[in-house]
Design brief:
Elements: H1 4-13, E1 20-21, H2 23-30, H3 34-46, E2 50-53, E3 57-60, H4 74-80, E4 84-87, E5 99-101, H5 106-110, E6 118-121, H6 125-133, E7 137-140, H7 148-157, E8 161-163, H8 168-187, E9 204-205, H9 210-220, E10 224-228, E11 234-239, H10 240-243, H11 252-255, E12 257-258, H12 269-279, E13 283-287, E14 293-298, H13 299-310, H14 319-325, E15 328-331, E16 337-342, H15 356-374, E17 377-389, E18 397-407, E19 411-420, E20 423-436
Parallel strand pairs: 5-6, 6-7, 7-8, 9-10
Antiparallel strand pairs: 1-3, 2-3, 4-8, 10-11, 11-12, 13-14, 15-16, 16-18, 17-20, 18-19, 19-20
Helix pairs in contact: 1-3, 2-3, 6-7, 12-13
Length: about 425
């Protein structure tokens, strides 16, 4: 039986794209409290079903799949640039293909304007009108208004006309940054990427008997199952260890492990892997915001997916990528492995010294690379102890020397020393759990 929350989400998902909704409307039509309606709308926003625009309201938009995550809707552009919608609000749900900067004569500019584009331009009324007629939206910079003719045309064509106070260069940079950030997010594997909607999870119910567990083991060859109630809400996990010594007529509810560790579809696979390694868990239930079971992920499948992604080309650069990009691997006088590079301006704090956060990122990355050279596996860092730290100024060259102290099947310890001009400026001990491939 569906909860009120789930009914509201299903109602929102069935609405046409561009449909405007409100808390009061949902509460009135579905006969629920405004608090329940508000929480469901916020959940729909988190799921990408709706987008809220200031002075316009909440609009039903198309939920993006992972392959199109970098595509922005006009509603999202409004929020990115802190804009105001002057007309065409019915088209806010539409996606823009590309944006065009109108910094040229009108005749030349129009050649680049195509349906689905967004023209970024100042107070050029003719450009606004012609752009709309060509099927593109308009973003007016500098805080300027549009004519009534343009606003009416925008409403008729359902193409947004947006105004913001920023200049053209700043607006273009803000939109570029939003797309760039999404490209990085696109590469981060989430738990939902592993879930197969066509393959429901095998589970047991609270009132099932232990004999049902043994039957499931024979049918599926699994030894761990989530336990749910009649509404599909997760209550526990049961394993072969839990049922040992119990009568076959005993209820599963009496032998299961209550309040198990769970993840949501939006949890990153890296975080899920760390949780599994840290807690020694082989299977993690995946639940929604109401704690209803959506599926399960196994430790083996998570590790395989992460290893596959490491082999794929990366589009966007993260802060860590930028930090380690300037460091190269070299051989020391005694043949030991070293990493050396120069402290760039972006790596410093407000005093011009190497930032502690950047330093710990360098140490962690070097320790990870050192383990990968000696052990064919991945690493989940447990602890980093920085017990020597001296300031290193801008433009100074540093050397990072990792030395493996201990490396077993599950635990690795690496001593990392950082040098400048043959003097130690930092020492750290990195302890990690090693995941075999």
């Amino acid at each position: 039986m569906s909860t009120k929350h789930e009914k509201i989400l299903a109602y929102i998902e069935d609405l046409e794209l561009g449909h405007k909704i409100s808390v009061r409307q949902i509460a009135r039509e579905l006969e629920v409290s405004e608090g329940t309606a508000y929480r469901a709308i916020k959940e729909a926003e988190n799921q990408g079903l709706v987008s809220t625009v200031e002075r316009v309201g909440t609009v039903r938009i198309e939920k993006k799949n992972r392959s199109k995550i970098e595509r922005l809707t006009f509603a999202e552009v409004v929020n990115i640039v802190d804009g105001q919608v002057l007309g065409g609000s019915a088209g806010l749900y539409k996606e823009l293909n590309k944006f065009v900067i109108g910094a040229m004569k009108l005749e030349a500019m129009i050649r680049y304007v195509e349906p689905g584009n967004l023209l970024i331009v100042g107070n050029r009324d003719n450009a606004h009108r012609i752009t709309l007629e060509r099927g593109a939206a308009v973003l007016i910079t500098g805080g300027f208004d549009a004519t009534e003719e343009v606003k009416q045309l925008a409403d008729h064509l359902e193409l947004p006309v947006i105004s913001c106070t920023y200049d053209t260069f700043t607006v273009a940079a803000m939109i570029n940054r939003a797309i760039y950030d999404r490209l990085i997010k696109k590469e981060i594997l989430l738990v939902e990427d592993m879930l197969n909607p066509d393959q429901p999870p095998v589970f047991l119910r609270l009132d099932d008997q232990v004999s049902r567990f043994h039957e499931s083991v024979q049918n599926t060859e699994h030894s761990r199952y989530p336990v749910v109630d009649e509404n599909g809400k997760l209550h526990g996990m049961v394993t072969a260890k839990d049922v040992v010594g119990h009568d076959s007529n005993e209820r599963i509810e009496r032998v299961m492990t209550k309040n198990p560790i769970t993840v949501t579809p939006k949890t990153s696979l890296a975080a899920a892997a760390h949780e599994m390694v840290w807690e020694g868990i082989e299977l993690l239930p995946v639940v929604n915001s109401n704690h209803h079971l959506l599926g399960v992920i196994s430790r083996q499948d998570v590790i395989k997916s992460l290893q596959y992604m490491q082999k794929q080309p990366q589009v966007g650069e993260t802060i860590n990528d930028l930090i380690v990009r300037g460091f190269e691997e070299v051989k020391g006088e005694n043949g030991e492995l070293l990493y050396q590079g120069v402290v760039a301006p972006q790596m410093t704090d407000s005093l011009g010294n190497l930032s502690t956060g950047v330093l710990t990122s360098l140490i962690t990355e070097v320790a990870y690379r050192r383990i990968r050279r000696q052990h064919r596996g991945d690493m989940v860092m447990d602890n980093l102890t920085l017990y020597t730290l001296k300031p290193v100024q801008l433009d100074r060259e540093i050397q990072i020397r990792p030395q493996v102290i201990e490396l077993g099947r599950k635990i690795g310890k690496i001593d990392v020393e950082v040098y400048h001009d043959s003097h130690i400026v930092a020492k750290a001990l990195v302890t990690a759990q090693v995941i075999e491939r």
